[in-house]
Amino acid sequence: MYLKKIYVNGFKSFAEKTEIEVEKGITAVVGPNGSGKSNISDAIKWVLGEQSAKSLRGGKMDDIIFAGTEKRLPLGYAEVRLIFDNESGIIPLEYKEVSISRKLYKTGESEYYINKQQCRLKDVKELFMDTGIGRDGYSFIGQGRVEDILSPNSDVRRQVFEEASGIVKFKTKKEESERKLEKTKNNLERVEDIIYELKERIEPLHEQSIRAQRFIEISGNLKKYELNYLSHEYEKHSEQLKALTNQRDVSLEEKIRLQKRRDSYTEIIESQKEKINALQNKINETEALRDSKNKILENYNSLSQVHKEKKLLFGSNIESVKNEIDALKKRNLELTENIDLMIQEKSSLEEIYKEDTEKFNSLNTEIKEYKAEIDKIVQLIEQQKNELFELHKEINKNNSSKNTIESLIINNGDRIKHLDSEVYSEEEERQNKTEIINELREEQNKTKLILNNKKAELDRISEALSSGEKNKETVNSEITKLSEKLSGTKSKINILSNMEAYYDGYYKSIKTVMNNKDREPLLERSILGTVADVIKTEKKYETAVEIALGSAIQNIIVNTDKEAEEIIEYLKKNKIGRVTFLPINMLAERSLSNYEREVLKDKCVIDTADNLIETNPKYENVIKNLLGRIIVVDNLNNGFKISKRLGNSIKMVTLQGDVINAGGSVTGGHISSNQNLLGRKREIDELKANFEELSEELKEKNNILNQLTISIKEYSGKLEEVKGIINEKNNYFEMNNSKIKMLMEQNEKTSAAINKYREEINFIQAEKDKYENDLNNINAETEKLKLLIEEKEKNIETTILQNNSNKSKYDEYNNAILKQRDQVSETTQNIKLMEEKLNNIRLEIERNENARKSKEESLDTIDNEIKTAEDTIIEYTAKTEVLSEEIKVLNDSYAKEKENLKNYQNEIYDYQNKINEANKLITDILDDEMKMNVKIERESSKIEDISSKLWEDYEINYAMALKYKDESISQTKLYSEVNSCKRAIKELGNINLDSIEEYKEVKERYDFLSKQQKDLTDAIEQLNEVIKELEVKMKEKFVEEFSSIRAKFGEVFKKLFNGGSGDIYLEDEADALNSDIEIAVQPPGKKLSKISLLSGGEKALTAIALLFSILKTKPTPFCILDEIEAALDDLNIFRFTQYLKEFSKETQFIVITHRKGTMEYADTLYGATMEEKGVTKLVSLKLSDAIN
What we know:
6-stranded mixed β-sheet; 70% helix; elongated
């Protein structure tokens, strides 16, 4: 196996990937200081597992990553890979070429690879173990390493020798075995402690589990009976609750029905009031319409009367006109017959005409005056009739109002009486409720006082309970600590007792014999015990006595030498081992001479060791034989003085365990506490005494705890009792508060109703007073109107009489005028006839005819006027009849509406009475509802309590509890069984339900750990055997290889120094594996001297001699030498290179050097340069090729 190539990338100054081919023989690396030569050595060391940044000349590990230069950026990782030729198969891998590489990232992550497969550092180390290659091997030698090898501290030297002797693998296995052994011992100790604790717990847990099983059985019966009982109780209270709820629902429905009825009545009343208002408006409208119609009717009657009178007037004129027509006819006849007479009479007629005309004008003026007066009187009559009509209308209106007001006054009176009775009833009810409220408030004050007292009591009990629980917690904590101490003490007692009983700490053969004593009759009959078994001493002397006895403390005492012989045969036969026996019959006392005893008087001398022992007189000879000539002193210094006085003839032991042997040798140092066999007995006794004290103290604490528990239980019972009373009183208090609140609300409603009634009474009274005042006013006004009507009627009669008188005179004047007009006309005609003579008679006749025709036309006009008057009279008569019918209908409607109004008002009073009755019924229902709610609450509370108990005690609900219901068992029997089960559970005391499983688990764990204990004990024995075997192999191999290196070192030293002598040796050959390795050299011409007195060159050459001697004994595949020859002169360089060349046949050498002599012998030369500052580049040259 040899190194073929080195790849370096990003390691220190190697910024670029650099490949270094390593040929067989010597490869030299040269270059100026700081060029990066040693970085190659560091790279190889690093890839092989170096973990110390200091060894790599850095502050921290990531310093090896190329840090950058002025021209180059820093890199993120460093990588080094070594390629080995493994044709020889030295590396235990089935590859002819093996690659080892390592990467380090800036993040701190490090990776190792073997043949590009990621692996552990341990794998890399194991691969090169005992090959000399490795960070602690001898394949890397630098100036610092030389100093380490030659330093006074030989630990580094030992590492090199161990690597060279090939025991590193064994040492590693031994260290692993020792770690496993220590771990196994710790595990065994823990297991034994746990086993002891488990053993202490098993029996109590067994008892607890039996009680727990009994508890489970009783609890099962209790559950069966109690769930049966509770399901019956739940059903009973549920049925009662259902009945009460149904009853309340019925009451609630009745209340809702009554409320709806009351609300409907209220709505009806409001509707009726609206109807009354609408009807009142309609009545007013009807009344106004009727008055209007009456007025029109009166007008029609007056107009009809006027037209009737007009008709009579025209009827009387018709006869006059007819007479005139007849007269004209007659006149025409006379004119025709008496034409002559007319002419004669003309003059007389003209005189008559003049007289008649004057008379006619006078009469016509007078009749006009009468006509005007008559018209004026007619108008006055019409006016008075209209005024009379208005007065009658006003009286009718007043009468109507009077009737309405009288009706309203009566109704208001009735309403006031009714409302007064309601107010009285409501006030009486309010008074009753106020009395109840006052009673309840008094009761609340009493309840509040009780509550305050109970709360104060509750606070006192809670404080006492809290104090008790704190004390209990403190005592519990103390008990826990005591239990832990007790458990620990007991554990220690058991462990020490077990150790004592099984003779732990004794030699294996003695342990076997003593453990077999009870099983073998021979041993049981003969063996009296070990020395440690039969002696006692004070604690301060234990160490001294045990050290004084030494291994004799384990010697076995027997009665006779024959017994010792028999037992030795037994040991041989059974191949148990070797044991030292002390036959009592063979041992003689050993003591100090009188001279020697003089030293016992010194203060520093305690006494002879045998006098410090307490034992059975039977064993005194044995003890005196063993300890009679051993003196115990206080310290080593005084011991030396005493020993010198006695000529180093007596063995001295100090209290600290240091020994001055007879002859002057001294033994001392650290003493393991595990081997204190005497102290173990004393410690067991002390622990037992301590255990008793702790047990007594724990018992007292448990008694205190029990008293506190009883006290806490009593306080808890009182607390629950007081809480129950407080809850009950609180519920009662809240219920009364609800009652008071409800009654106050009802009183407020009652007061509001009373106020409303009173307001309504005041309003009705005011309305009644107003109506009565209005009625008085109407009566007074009606009386006035009646007086005015009488006066008007008298005036109308007087005016009518006066008008009738004027009408008679008018008729007379009218007749006279008509006659006078006729006479004037006649005279005029006669005159004309007479004037026109005969020729004009016809004209007169024609005129008469025209007059006649005119009269007839006038007669037609009068007929038309009469007809018109008759038609008008008929029309007004018809209208009067229609109006009369309408007025009659209106009067009927008015009367009907008035009746309806009265009916509506009566209905309102009826509905109001019904509302009052409904309110009273609702109040009664509310009272009943409140009582039922209390009962329902009570039943619900009971059901809730049962449900809570079901859930809290059994974590089930009623539906789940039904399966436990059994109708065949009476409630009384169930109640009795439940109480019986509870008493039985109480008698069981505190129950640990987990103890069943805990016992099972602890038992299983105990059995398992017992097996583990045996396995661990076996493992410890096996590991001890493995360690012993490894130590034997290591010692044999190390001694063999060391001897070889030692021989070769002498040869190599002579050659390199050209004379002189050199030697390496073990300081303590008996302990070859731990002994320091010393180097003794004598350069030519000098005396044997210490290494520290050599020059630097001599030291370097000595180290090189040691390296070459190791390489001769066990060659390594390659070796790196970093300027180790720097201190040598040219002559020594020549010797060094000659020897190096010789070794290069079997080992590759990579030599980092400045010396030309070394370079001359190199097969390959690498030059390290820094063309670019901070970046190493290598230039290679194969010298064999260059020479050729």
